Amino acid sequence: MKPAAGQGKEYDVVIVGSGVSGAAVARTVAAQGGRVLLLERGGRVNWMGNTLTVMRVLEKCGLTRSRENHPVTFADSLGGASNLSAGCAMPPPLFLLSRYGIDLTVETEEVRRELGIAELPDRLIGETNFRLMDAAASTGLSWRKMEKFIDPEKCVEGCSDCMLGCRRGAKWTARTWVDEAVRLGVNLKANTRVERVLCEGGSAVGVEGKRYGRTVRYYGKAVVLSAGMSDVHLLRRAGIREAGKGLCCDWLQFVGAVIPGMSTGGVHPMAVGTTDLHESEGIIILPVFPNWSQFAVLVASKGFQHFTKLREFRNYTGIMVKVKDETEGEIYPGGSFSKPITLQDRKRLDKGVDLIRKVLRKAGAREDSILALNPIGAHPSASCRIGEVVNADLATRIPNLYCCDAGVLPRAMGAPLIWTLAALGKRLGTHLGRRLSLGPPAREG
Fold first, then answer.
1. Both 428 and 338 in a single domain?
2. Closest Cα to residue 71, out of 236, 245, 318, 254?
């Protein structure tokens, strides 16, 4: 199979998806002198810090729902969901990945240095967060400052726009590494919808898709799928039927209340909180609340009797519980998917909601204002699991075809994923460089 006329050379690596993992693979291979093509279905959203940003970054404007009618967010933009993260940094679950022969020790420390991961200074954390910490302590919960990949010199006090897109460039996103990769020679093609993996002699040799309505084919010595749910469809079309059998999404639930003299509006999200129950019970609790449009949608899903809450939105103080959900459901051809909230998921969410209610009450919440919104799935993952769909090198059973994003996680993390995905992408990029006999990757001091 030869490259079509006008469709270029053979690359060392063709990467589908420009989220955290895809950007990490592209940057790492390019740093070794590799010829890399990075394909992205969406475009680059540059108007940050507002509701329209969220609508443009997320697939279907953030209104994607499972067959059970539960909202689950999927990104569709250059840089993926990292554009809308709160900048929270939790290290990779080394204990979990080590059982599959995956050692991310080196990559974990590299990511810490390169993203400047550290706690925020007190001036950016804000009085509301410290008051919530005190209230939590009085209930027996141990809250602390959370580590972030946010530059405190660029961040400003009184801003809570992290999850609407950082307009100041203080928060690291995958676009930072995409831009670095382009400077290293990576060929980036946005607005390119990949539809199938091209195989020859049983091995992956490239991809085919549409770009501005025209059929395109691109060829590479290795193909890396890093495009979320789209990975499942591409793998199934290539004959890997077990992809998409079960998935996780880190169910989360917001609980808010009106507390005199307080509001999480204008307060840095998730700057403090607790992960003490993460390992034992799969629960983390962090102060954050949705923006007005998300709040309106979630209130509407609870019933019209709650619409009066909209009048007090700006006065709400919110806290979120996030849980490790069970691996259930399926991604179906055509794009629909099933993702039930299991009994175990519900128990974990309910425990988190009860703990949050206690904190809000201790902080002085009006009892009639306490509102638990319906659950949302925030981190689609575990649909192309290590040990089932890919091996420890993230390779599928089709030679030269790899997967590298949240889909390869063996189960739900129930925690921020970006640090883990960046480390996995760096590891795969280094592996591909060795396999293709490229130069050693540049290491930061």
1. no
2. 254
Residue ranges with strand state E in 89-191: 118-119, 144-145, 147-148, 187-189
Identify the domain containing residue 176 by its residue range: 1-43+78-116+172-245+381-445
Query: 145-155 pLDDT, tens per residue?
Result: 999 999 999 99
Assigned domain for 59 exists: no
**Conformational region of residue 225, where left means phi above 0, alpha means psi within -120 to 50, and beta covers everything else:** beta
Q: Are 194 and 240 in a shared domain?
A: yes
**E strands of 360-425, at which residues?**
371-372, 376-377, 401-403
Q: What is the pLDDT of residue 185?
A: 97
Return the beta strands (E) in 152-211 as ranges: 187-189, 192-200, 203-211
Comparing 40-44, 297-301, 379-383, the range with the smallest average pLDDT is 297-301
Which CATH number do you get for residue 266? 3.30.410
360: phi then psi, degrees, rounded to nearest 5 = -60, -40
What does the alpha-carbon distance between residue 137 and residue 241 come to, in Å, rounded to a whole number?
A: 49
User: Does pTM surpass 0.70?
Assistant: yes
- On the question of pLDDT at 8 being above 80, the answer is no
Which residues neighbour 334 within 8 Å (Cβ) at sequence distance 6 or greater?
none
Tokens of 260: 């005199």
